[in-house]
Amino acid sequence: MSDDFELETLAVRAGIHRSQFNEHSEAMYLTSSFVFENAAQAAARFSGQEPGNIYARFTNPTVTVFQERLAALEGAEFCVATSSGMSAILSCVMGLLSAGDHIIASRSIFGTTVQLFGNILKRFGIETTFVSLTDVSAWQAAVQPNTKLLFVETPSNPLTEVCDIGALSSVAKQAGAWLAVDNCFCTPMLQRPLDLGADIVIHSATKYLDGQGRVLGGAVLGKKELMEGVYGFLRTAGPTLSAFNAWVILKGLETLKIRMDAHSQNALALAQWLEQHPQVDRVYYPGLASHPQHDLAMKQQKSGGGILSFDVKGGKDAAWRVVDHTRMLSITANLGDTKTTITHPATTTHSRVTAEARAASGIGDGLLRVAVGLEAIGDIQADLARGLNA
């Protein structure tokens, strides 16, 4: 579609390729393989001389629609869809890096990503240095001759720290490396990292892109030439997004703008309420003026987003009491759902991270993360108040 269309329109219309039946809704192609007209066409498809579908591990029309639509939303040349957010990160690294290469990553990233970078990739000769997300000088100091990738989440999980994407882009370019930004918390409706200087955007489509906690999915986006390495890994290793999941996420994309605006509105109101609660030590939310990177966030993002965290007075016992007193909020580690979710990061999402590393990242025992859903804000506040007032 034309670049003249607004994001809301692209989220509904981009990537549609109708079949001979002229269906209005995107078709779901549940097939493992595709038939060729003759041997010559099969050979041409496999050699890349003729475009077209071959095998659903790496070509499927429904997945292609999702890839083209998300690429349009992020302003990317190409998108590689994967089976989950973590498989997107793995595909990015394995498709672009080799043994002996070096990664610089924010220490404020998802706990499973820490495990992937710090433990699994290390076994294959790819070393990672973890630094402060917000300290540009620390990134500069960590650069080595073999540095190939800088990796960040912004806002971070779970403390919603925000990095200067443009500044880190400059560090990456000077090092001859790529900057990858996990845009899961914002989605392209609130933040477009490629426009700010990033080379790669990564998504867990499981979260806001689906938006209703139904299916798993992931994506890696960037320039087509760069994404060829990622696509090559996916074609061979097969961390593939299924046609069904792609179709479900496509339906989610149609309402992404409306949902992200509503999530952000609710989250800001909840953050402001929590800041005034006597049992709360601190609230972490980019939309608050008290947030350390509030001004930067408002330059890079259209709003504060739908995720916040807060420290409860009394440590782990008090935090667990808040969780256990909820009657409506879903106690789950997932986020980006229409339903509000709550989790205790130190014992769930970041439980496999060492206590020292959690402390260095500011993840204390009294910290709770809330992914604010679309319920009435008064009901969300009342549910949290039960535990906070206990």
| Structural class category | alpha/beta
Give helix and strand order, one letter per element, not per position: HHHEHEHEHEHEHEEHHHEHEHEEHEH
* Total strands: 12
Task: Report the C-alpha radius of gyration, rounded.
Answer: 21 Å
Describe the structure.
- By secondary structure, the chain is of the alpha/beta class.
- It has two domains: 247 residues, Type I PLP-dependent aspartate aminotransferase-like (Major domain) (Aspartate Aminotransferase, domain 2, 3-Layer(aba) Sandwich); 132 residues, Aspartate Aminotransferase, domain 1 (Alpha-Beta Complex).
- It is built from 15 helices and twelve strands.
- The strands form two sheets. It has a seven-stranded mixed beta sheet, sandwiched between helices. A five-stranded mixed beta sheet has the order 8-9-12-11-10.
- Helix 3 runs parallel beside helix 10, helix 4 packs across helix 9 and helix 13 packs across helix 15.
- It is globular and about 75 Å long.
